[in-house]
Each structure stands twice: as structure tokens, then as C-alpha cells.
Model the fold of this input.
Amino acid sequence: MKGLKSNTLADAFSWFCNQIASKYDSHEARSVAGIVFEHCFQVTSLQLITQKDQRLTESDIVALYKIIKTLLRDVPVQHITGKGHFRYLTLDVNESVLIPRPETEELVQWILDDSKALPVKNNKLKIWDIGTGSGVIALSLARELPSSEVWASDISADALDVAKKNAATNLCQVTFIHHNVLMDEVPATDFDVLVSNPPYIRESEKALMKNNVLNYEPNLALFVPDHDHLLFYRAIGLIAGKALKPGGKLYVEINEALGSETIELFLSLGFKNVEIRKDIFGKDRFAKAWEFQPQ
Ligand code: GLN
Done:
């Protein structure tokens, strides 16, 4: 195989990284290669060092070569392995759902931190994750707040199938419902927490996005029209007004460019308080709204 010095794990790993260098910078390439080697050969990043001289077979190299070709077509590595990782969970992912993003883990952390501040007797939270996709938010909250009652909805039946399977494999108890947030009535009330990572990328921002997202992740979960880019936040805010119990809170992931607009929107809908938080990359990424008072 061109460029491959020998069949050892170490040489195969550097060869793999070099082969995908046109699509990934060196840090990303190592992380993608790490995911592939763990998936194909069950070797951890530590074993890549301690067992660096272990030899792969010819058919292992052929399998790696096929994966390289797939990656060069912009297929996300998570679609090759079929797995995504989020907090303590390993989840199935496919083209019907977004691949979990590290930022969204912080949204879950915000809810967990707030819940720890509550008196224990109030700690049995009723939570609804709107637009659950693969289920990452709902399943994490069900796992990490085991006394909570968690609901999760999505407009996509295919996404719900993925989320239900993920709940089963991760032994998480979640009530799933098929629900269109733009049209359907609230399915239940008295929630302590509503949480959502709705579509928020404006169509005009498509030009800035990579092909692996554009071509392989569901447009339905990502994009909003430029002329009405907060439509999901308006719908979710109105639903929150009906579905939250007094004292309940709404948490959302947001477009980094739309923090102030999101604050204005939630205030105009009737929330008395809105707080914006930055993600690990220093970008306005989350909003919390609470104390809803009907206008
Ligand atoms: N953060 C995601 C991305 O940049 C978008 C998630 C969303 O639209 N809710 O691809």
C-alpha cells in the first residue's frame, strides 16, 4: 500500500492519518484515526503506544484503506462506526439524527448543576427534551438524574426509532412521543424543565459549513430560513409557557450569533428572566429562561 512503511500498528496509524490529511487537520486526523482503530481493532489510544509493534494483517490494511476512501468522500467517522459518544453514553447514530456535539454536553451540565441547588425533596424533576434526535439530552438526564421523569419528542419518526433503541441499549427510562413543535398541542403539563437543541443554522450560513455535515447530517435538524430564524425558539417558548409548572425553567442551545435576539424573544413572550451562557469555545451557545408570566 502506497506510503505504508510496515504493517505495525504505529506505522498503520501514521499512514492512516497522512491519507486523510486533505480533509482533516493533524489533531482531527489523529482523533478520527483513534476512533477507527478502536472500532476495527479494539485498541485504545494507550494501546496504540504500548502495543505499537503489533502487526496488522493484509486484510486489516485493506479494511483501513476502504475506510480512508469513505472518509475522503466526507462521510463522518461516526457513520462508519455507527456510534456516537455523549457524556457517559455510547449511542447509535445514522443519517436521521445529528451526531452528538460536545457543546450540547454542557447544556446537560447546566441543568444538572441547577438541579443540585434544589432541596432534595424537589429533586424529582419532570423533564421534556424537545427535538431529541438520537436522544442524547433525554437519555443523559434520565441516567444522571435517576429520580427524574423524562419525556422526549421529535417530529421525525426515524429519529425516534434511533432514540428508542438508544434508550433500550443504555437502560434509560424515557417516554417518547411523536410531536411537531410548530403545530401540535402540549402533550402534558407540570414540567420542571423543558430543554431543546432545535435547528438554528441560517440557510445563509450553509456556505461556512463542511461537507461532512452538509451532505450527511439531517437538514431537518440543522437549518432554519433566514427570514424567520428563531421560529423554533418562538414555538418552544410558547409551549414552555403552557407546559412548565410555576418555577419551571427552559434551557436551549442557540446560534452563537443570536444571543441578544434570543433574549429579546423570550422576554417578549413573557419570561421575566433570561440568561445566556458561553460554550467551551467561548461562544454564546445556551440560554435559560424562567418565570413565565402570561401577557
Ligand atoms: N451545533 C450544530 C452544528 O454546528 C448545529 C445544531 C443545531 O442546529 N441545533 O452543526
Observations:
- Residues 101, 197-201, 213, 222, 253 surround glutamine (CB under 6 Å).
